[in-house]
Amino acid sequence: MNFTTLALSVLLSTLGWATVAQAESESDLQQLRTTNRCPECDLRGADLQQFDLRGANLFKAQLQGANLRGVDLRSANLNQANLYKADLTQANLADANLFDANLRNTLLERADLREADLSQADLAQVNLIKADLRDASLVSANLSQSYLNQSNLENADLRQAFLFNSDLEAANLTKANLLGADLRRANLDRAILESTNLTATIVADTNIDRAEFSQTILRGSVLQGTDLAPVVCIISNVVNCVIVPASEEAEDLFSQPEIENPR
Questions:
Q1: How far apart are CA 89 and CA 201, in angstroms?
Q2: What is the DSSP letter of 99?
Q3: DSSP states of 68-82 as a string?
């Protein structure tokens, strides 16, 4: 076989492979459309905005850069799915299974993630501004450098979550469980931390200006470089912060014995 014939053969072979690969992608899209099941499918860059994906099986699906803006994904199985840089703005992911999913750089602004399982998920540099994460599981999730401004994390499970350098300004963390979480250099300005469990949490070099503390558990927390001023705090097993002891109740708080924090 001469060089020209060989080159032509290789080219035709490559084109044939590309056609098959594209057909397989279309086949995956059609399978999802007709059966609502497409585990391990290749849906990279797909426009799924018109799909109803409630309860869809997308286990380990490749959804990098997919358009899922506003899509209904309630109770969908996205376990270990790759959603890198996907657009899930205002998507409904309530009760969805996103265990160990790759959501790095994903858009989830105003998304509904109530009761979703995001345990061990990679949510680094993700946009979760004003997202609803009430009762969500984020155990051991990576939320480093993420944007959680004004998000609702009430009663969320954030045990051992990695929140390094994340922005939680004005976030609602009422009754959230952050046992053992890493909040180094996080921004908690104006965050609500009422009855929040911060046991053994690393709150080093963290901005907590104007944060609302009430019955917040700080047992064994690391507070190096974190300024509790200008509010006045009594640290014991729980922290109660007030601006001034303006009532008898507040004065009683100041009479409680203080326990020195580890530094």
A1: 30
A2: T
A3: -TT-B-TT-B-TT-B
